[in-house]
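Rather than argue in generalities, we have chosen a single entry, letters for residues, whole numbers for local backbone shapes, without further comment.
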Amino acid sequence: MALTAALFDQALPAQLDIIPGILFEIEQCMRSGGFSDEHILDMQLAVEEAITNIVLHGYAGTPGQVKVHGEVEPDRAIVEITDSAPAYDPLSQADPDVTAGIDERRIGGLGVFLIRRVTDDASYRFCEGKNVLRLVKLKQKTPGK
């Protein structure tokens, strides 16, 4: 069984102004786990996009709460984001056509696309009336080490 160390476990109001504090926690914990700057930035981008979508689209201006739980294992960082907004699987959304010209693209839809691209695994489940988005970033070993 892999040794895990909790990054953080916070329940916060669903507001955009909570994002910088969460991103700081992710940076500190992943850095202490030996993750590269690129991997830290990838996880931060994914979490920022997810929380922004929850606040703006999930709760859509109504009060709510976002719970963020993170863990660092020797080979990966895991962040789970839980909310009580109406059930919605963001990963069911099709990728936008990024080959289309800027004038031909619909507005929005890039957040989930980015989450898929910068994480090594993203999964969704609806459990006990809550949306749970699980994001995983692997710590790839340097070749030859």
Observations:
- The chain has three helices and five strands.
